[in-house]
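Input/output pair, single chain:
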Amino acid sequence: MVSLIIGHKGTGKTKVLVEKVNSAVHSSNGNVVCVEKETKLTYDVNYRARLVATDTFSISGYDAFYGFLSGICAGDHDITDIFVDATFRIAGDRTPAALEAFLKKIDELSKISDTHFTFTVSTDLEELPESMFAFCEKLN
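Output:
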């Protein structure tokens, strides 16, 4: 399953994400991963969640980002949840069509790996294609 936390900068998306990460740590029977662009959430996210900064690994573009997330899933079969903050900043592409194609691939990865993905997306809901919500759940 793929979930989206949508809103403009300053609307509290990261705060909601951190709450969901910390909640998942307490309720999960497996491992929880939080992916961010740069190390900012160190003191906000529960220490039992694996915190990963994509800048450390020079991730840029949706293809590299997908490969990175696939590698995380392949490296640990006990991951139940992956949370991603600043999706557009990591990918470097704010095009709704590119985001939809990426999330469609993530939806397939989610089914293969039995992992729930949650992404923050900095945009208006109206800017995203309606077809995206056939396989993505809006959380806010």
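The mean pLDDT is 95. The beta strands are 2-6, 31-36, 50-53, 79-84, 116-121, 136-138.
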